[in-house]
Amino acid sequence: MKRVPRMLRIFDLMLAVLGLLLCAPVLMLLYCVGLFDTGAPLFRQVRVGWHQKPFVLIKFRTMRLGTPHVGTHLADAAAVTRWGRFLRRSKLDELPQLWNVLKGEMSLVGPRPCLPNQTELIAERAARGVFAVRPGITGLAQIQGIDMSRPQLLAQTDAQMIATLGALQYFRYLWWTLLGHGRGDRIRP
What we know:
The chain contains eight helices and four strands; from the N terminus they run ααββααβαβααα. The protein is mainly alpha-helical. The chain has one domain. α1 (7-22) crosses α2 (24-37), α1 crosses α4 and α5 packs parallel to α7 (151-164).
């Protein structure tokens, strides 16, 4: 497995700081609207991270309180609030993860972090060395619309991305994500 260049971590830090600073007013607005939507606008969930170490991922809440913690493809679409649908479509629910990037738990580009109970995906990723890199907010699988319902294909795609990841691909994945390519981990109706 090819090592991801260290310069990408520098890009992560610069872009995360810039993103948090520039998006601070938007983050505050989304937080306040989320207070009215669910009463608890931030969602925290343990995920499997770099070297399979658990970490707490932070997102804006898009589902009602008390919704079971399952992979997105298994989630109940009826649990998503109207505000949550907007956040998911616009991908604004992901903005708080910039904090995870700043802390070094995630990268902007990498394999999406899975839940500890997604054992099949964890095994597939471990076999391919995917945990040798930080998980990311976006990546090749998300752009191609591959979600966690297909663990083997997802792990193969993650490994392919890691093997070819350099500065050009890093910015390309970010650009494609900003343009709305792919739908990645989506809730099935």
